[in-house]
TrEMBL record:
Protein name from the UniProt record: Urease accessory protein UreF
UniProt keyword Protein biosynthesis, yes or no: no
This protein's UniProt keywords: Chaperone, Cytoplasm, Nickel insertion
Organism of derivation: Arthrobacter oryzae
Main localization, broad class: cytoplasm
GO MF annotation, one: nickel cation binding
InterPro entries, alphabetized: UreF, UreF_sf
Subunit relationships: UreD, UreF and UreG form a complex that acts as a GTP-hydrolysis-dependent molecular chaperone, activating the urease apoprotein by helping to assemble the nickel containing metallocenter of UreC. The UreE protein probably delivers the nickel.
Amino acid sequence: MTYQLALQQLTDSALPTGAFAHSLGFEGYIERGLVHDEESFGVWLGAFISQQLTYSDALAIRFLYEGAPVAELDALVTAQLLPRQLREASIKMGGRLLEIGAEIFPSTELAQYRELVNSGRAASHQPLAFGVVARSLGVPLGDALAAYLFATVTSLTQNAVRAIPLGQNAGQRILRKAADCVAAAAERAGHLTPDDFGAVSPGLEISQMRHERQRARMFMS
């Protein structure tokens, strides 16, 4: 399993993709007082994992692994990411991941995706950039899904520790509980159909849209 060390590097929280600058919607819940402690953030995180991460990111990665053209998936991800900030966050972090991948994990598949992006035929979404790199490294789909989902959860939890704020031990407790949600999400994504793609709770999307006009913000999304 030569891909394991590479996968750890790819999902390390220190990878400079800019994830530290995004709440992906939870800051809006903080502003309204709905997320204010360990328990309430855990509830939000569970909903985010089981909905947006499952029906958007995880499903995009799975379809990529199954052979769907990356350009078509890129357009679908762009279309279903209705909140502008979330769409821009996915593109910014995906673009950085493509740049990093080209330097440390180059492959023909990655070069082809970058060419689509550079020519304006694709946007460079984060889950697809990750999926392209992971697949070129020989990472099995199940491992790729679990690693991507948990890396996203880790970044969000680290950001919540700063923003709410929470203690470091609280963050670790949240991650331990979230691991079960991540495993369930990876399993569920394997049974969904193209018709399920982008099925997200309106409450999450509305909060992500409201964040654009929030008076005081720590995060870009």
